[in-house]
Design brief:
Length: 315
């Protein structure tokens, strides 16, 4: 069986590289400083005077013992622990790896203050930025890929109901809302499937192309008799500030077949997307009864203030 491409895995491996690179480097540096506190093992004797601008320098910075311990405890050991957590595929590894990128940036900021401008500080500050960004990416991809959906969690979904929840979903966020809604209303569920590539990174860009042009995206033939339902609730993601392209095709196909309709739009923004709801009305040739705008953030949802609660609406 072909292994599914995992963006989390790619980010995790890059983050392991950064954690080991920074961690092993810091470990080596601190061992050298502790073995020879005058800094001679690393040719750092001339750097000591620069430390004298720091607080408590007369006690802490007369040699490299304090700096060596600090390097070990702040950048060395934590990065190695983060690498182990990442090898174990723990979410905490991504969080820790990212935070250690920020820590490295803060560390280098102190060096910016005490040392004259030099290439190494600039380089390591850049490494800190890259490590922090890789940690953020790993965390986002982890959340996306561990967004678990079990049909068994929605026992009230009833495919004999006269209320139907229709949805299209690339990543599963809209699907979750659709199933939660159907579960709450004892409604049936129907998934719109596109015949185009919508999955993965390539799918994202392909969908973006349709979204940018405001095109319809071809969908599989409908396997449901829409005229049989007393009410249909359409759940759709927002693509490029507009209606997701497969849902546009669905609305066109459903024109004249629906008796009553509600919309639930899922996105990442604070906007209510009333214009999208208006477009759906016009495509369907039917005025909506209710419409809700829900903001999702990699797995958690928040309903926009301007819309009423879903449960109170549908009857
Ligand atoms: C091509 C594309 C364009 C998008 N454009 C927007 C946008 O303009 N505004 C927004 O808030 N979200 C945008 N999104 C994000 C989706 O609306 C959001 O991730 C939604 O939760 C996806 O639901 P799904 O997981 O069910 O596919 C876009 C997503 C894709 C794939």
């Amino acid at each position: 069986m072909q292994k599914e491409h995992s963006r989390y895995n790619v980010a995790r491996i890059i983050l392991i590289f950064w954690c080991l690179f920074i961690g092993v480097g810091a470990l080596g540096g601190s061992v050298c400083m502790l073995l020879k506190p005058d800094g001679s093992l690393m040719g750092m004797q001339e750097l000591l005077p620069y430390f004298q601008v720091l607080p408590f320098s007369e006690t802490l910075f007369q040699d490299f013992v304090f700096s060596g311990f600090s390097l070990l405890l702040v950048n060395g050991i934590p990065n190695l622990i983060a690498a182990v957590l990442l090898f174990q595929k723990r979410k905490s590894g991504a969080v820790m790896g990212g935070i250690l990128g920020l820590t490295l940036m803060a560390w280098i900021c102190i060096q910016f203050v005490i040392f004259p401008n030099n290439i190494m500080d600039n380089l390591y500050f850049t490494f800190g930025i890259l490590q922090a960004l890789t940690g953020l990416a790993a965390l986002i991809f982890y959340k996306q890929e561990h967004f678990i959906f079990e049909r068994g969690d929605y026992p009230n979904v009833d495919n004999t109901s006269d209320t139907l929840v229709v949805y299209f979903s690339r990543m599963g966020y809209t699907r979750k809302i659709a199933y939660e809604t159907a579960n709450r209303l004892n409604a049936a569920v129907y998934e719109i499937k596109s015949t185009e590539t919508t999955q993965g990174t390539l799918g994202f860009w392909w969908c973006g192309r349709y979204g940018m042009h405001g095109w319809d995206m071809p969908i599989e033939a409908l396997q449901v008799d829409l005229t049989a339902y007393r009410k249909v609730i359409i759940c759709s993601p927002i693509w490029v500030f507009g209606l997701a392209a497969p849902m546009r095709s669905f609305c066109r196909m459903a024109k004249g077949k629906l008796q009553r309709v509600d919309y639930i739009l899922i996105h990442h923004m604070g906007a209510s997307f009333t214009k999208v709801a208006d477009e759906m009305d016009s495509l369907l040739g039917l005025k909506r009864e209710h419409f809700y705008s829900i903001r999702c953030h990699v797995g958690s949802f928040r309903e926009n203030k301007q819309s009423a609660t879903i449960s109170s609406s549908v009857n």
